[in-house]
Design a protein that fits this description.
Chain lengths: ~350, ~350
DNA sequence: AAAAAAATGATGTACGTACCTCAGAAAATC
DNA sequence: GATTTTCTGAGGTACGTACATCATTTTTTT
């Protein structure tokens, strides 16, 4: 009636504990037929390895690494804080997490950094980096070395078998599109889409989703092309100022990447008076303040804490070979307005 | 450099392992001064008990119970499914969860059921029941017996020291209010608020939040009193039909409790043609279908999986005395539209 | 059939903690 | 100061698994 142990398993399979151990830990020296018998017995008695006991015996700590861009913004900041906050709990689970920053825009450096990782005693890596051939190959090398990898926040669709922890960006774009259409009421006008760069796949996916919805409202909403700031505040300012004078008048702005929020001050002067609907991404201290004062109307976000924990869980389950509770790992596209803003920092 | 163990702790405190054990497990027979020295050492060397090892040694399973109303609806159904789904993972964590259904509307029966629990070998209970004096007292009796308790989905603000796992219902109401105002564009008209009963604190809180926002739009939105269905479909139908003929015309409906969704068919006939904005609570197969076909515009929900896991984590941490990672336990007020609907069932 | 090789069993130690018993030390009581 | 009581220490076993060693059995090769 109790939970079956290795002993029960040995008895059920008609072998010794040593053999059970050999099969469970994929050690050499066991005939295929015998191994099969054990595997059969595992199913029959519904044996599940006690991982806490296993880890205890192994006296091993899992070494995980988050590879983050060295570009500093509030979102990355939140991720770092969450990782730090989570590590307290992880002590109980024999997991150590460290953070590595690297230049986001230099694929070769990122790839090199990843290669360095495989040299050290690392068990798993969460990589947040734009998708490039260099990065993709480096990830595949990690796989080859048996190091667990997940793509973090940025998808890596071309690196096969690399699980993605993050939101569905197309759905996020669709959601913004729908909110934009709804929040502008029945008004007619143009919508400005602003992003740091359209190079990234994330931006493209968001834009794609956004267009799919706004197209249905083409009779009253004119959506312009994605304007790129390239991280240049002056350029950004110029774009916004020009757009504010468009005809028909501007009714909405979609800030598609989280790292361009600093242009908000340009909008402030005119925007609030004109009731321009402003929607952006990621809930940060900055966007929180904007939601509260009404200069932004909604924020589409992903729960950073959940993001971090999910990445860690996925890595751990890849390492231990245990399959995760996938319903817990789905990252939701969250809509945050002033009214449903979570309380904490 | 490694994680300190009880042995290290003993050395640091200048006592034996046995004494350390006595202090850690609150066993009798240790002088206050000595105990204090140990506690001091715990802080100094930053000792944290290895709970997996501890649980292993204890060879104990935590017995948890969810007390749910026996009223059958999709929301309760989802909760049950999540509990079942979670239990697989819990096996690894020495936790067993069972479900107990009880009449929701009979406070005495609920209280009696709770009292029965304290008799059996139960370590923690998550209670979903309307707040009544009987239930409150029964909860306090659980506390007295050292059984961990959390209020689940329904708050129990008068049962002291009872942690609440669920959303902030006032914030939920505010969110609906804001969405209602936004989604109705600049249109003028009445808004119908429909609920099963206003008896429950949840309904009152939601209504309160809803009014706080819609009051700002009083120039164009006329919000009627909360209409109660008392679970009677015919009564519900009559209410809705009457409301649909109101002057000024109806522009929105707020379905305030999740258990009244069956009246949607009444709205269907007229609602969609009149572009009535319909907002309700809880994402279920039913509301999913409504969001997809457009007969509902938004759903305010709480992640049921998260709800269940959070309740379990809170109970476990109360039992073991370990404090939880509270940022993980905050239940968000989620806005779901067709565009950001999570994929799974 | 004998020898070599491969597979399996038996047994022990370890991980970090819980829990038990018994002996000895320290404190409180008389 | 002697006695009782209360603390403390020393040591062991257990939990479920990992990992190592060595003896023994079974299979394969010659």
């Amino acid at each position: 009636m109790h939970k079956p142990t290795t002993k029960d398993l040995a008895k059920a399979a008609g072998v010794s504990l040593a053999t059970v151990d050999r099969v469970l830990n994929a050690r050499a020296g066991v005939r295929p037929a015998t191994a099969e018998r054990v595997r059969q017995a595992i199913k029959e008695i519904n044996f599940v390895r006690d991982f806490s006991a296993a880890n205890l015996a192994r006296k091993k700590d899992y070494q995980l690494v988050f590879l983050l861009p060295d570009h500093d913004d509030e979102f990355i900041d939140q991720i770092q804080k969450q990782i730090a906050g989570t590590s307290r709990v992880l002590t109980h689970e024999r997991t150590k997490v460290s953070i590595l920053r690297t230049s986001a825009n230099d694929p070769h450096r990122v790839a090199k950094e990843i290669d360095n990782l495989s040299a050290s005693q690392i068990d798993g890596v969460a990589i947040m980096a734009p998708e490039t051939p260099q990065v993709r190959d480096a990830i595949l090398r990690l796989h080859a070395r048996g190091i667990a990898v997940v793509a973090f926040v940025s998808r890596q669709p071309n690196a096969k078998r690399t699980y993605y922890v993050g939101i569905n960006n197309e759905a996020a774009g669709r959601t913004v599109g729908q909110l934009m259409a709804r929040f502008t009421g029945q008004r007619h006008g143009t919508v400005l889409v602003l992003t740091e760069t359209m190079q990234s796949r994330d931006s493209q996916e968001r834009r794609h989703g956004f267009d799919a919805i706004t197209a249905k409202y083409a009779d009253r909403l004119t959506v312009g092309p994605s304007m790129e700031t390239y991280g240049d505040p002056q350029r950004a300012e110029k774009i916004v100022k020009m757009a504010l004078q468009s005809q028909p008048p501007m009714v909405g702005i979609y800030l598609m990447s989280h790292d361009i929020l600093d242009i908000m001050h340009v909008i402030d002067d005119l925007g609030m008076a004109q009731r321009i609907v402003v929607i952006g991404h990621e809930l940060t201290p900055f966007t929180r303040a904007r939601l509260v004062d009404g200069s932004m109307d909604a924020v589409i976000t992903q729960d950073v804490g959940h993001l971090v924990r999910s990445a860690i869980r996925m890595l751990r389950s890849k390492i231990t070979g245990m399959d995760p509770l996938d319903s817990q790992e789905r990252i939701r596209v969250e809509i945050i307005m002033r009214e449903n803003m979570p309380e904490d920092a």
